[in-house]
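User: Hey, my collaborator sent me this sequence without any context and asked if I could get a structure. I don't really work with proteins. Can you help?
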Amino acid sequence: QVMDSTKLGQNAKMLKPICGNTLKQILAKLGFQNWRIDISKYLPPSEAKSTMFVGVDVSHDKLLKGVYGASRGRRSTVGFTASRNDTYHAYNSYISYQDPDTEFITEAKRLMTSALDDFYAENKRHPTSIVVYRDGVGDSQLTTFVRQEINLYKEAFEAKNLDIKLTVIVV
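Assistant: No problem. I've predicted the 3D structure and written it out in structure-token form, which is a compact way to encode the shape of the chain:
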């Protein structure tokens, strides 16, 4: 963790909060938990230790939009994060690049397969249910994109011969 020592001496009131927050960041990077909500108590007992949570969003490169000659360098970036343990505090993150301004996740199957593999590596079993939080889908795109992405997720399950309960929540 990097700290600017000149900032520490500028305001004595900020010394403890800065040091405390820095310690929390260091501990988090070492694998400790700063806080935790027991999510498993809100799940059915049969799924409390076998559910994977996934968060997905697409970011579009707006910095180069409208810049002369920038169309070749523009792209959209998919962020895909999946829990890998039964306390839901350890996550793996994956990224994928796709054509500019594409909201549909073209590599949804590959990303889900990677998440399933990492969950298995941690737990020596696959999840029995997956909850996907999908951000950035407008009402007009809901039917088209989400259904297509759901089919790609199901293809990832089928390729591994898994029967997984899938819940998709568009936020």
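In plain terms: Residues 84 and 122 are 7 Å apart (CA to CA). You can pass these tokens on to your collaborator as they are.
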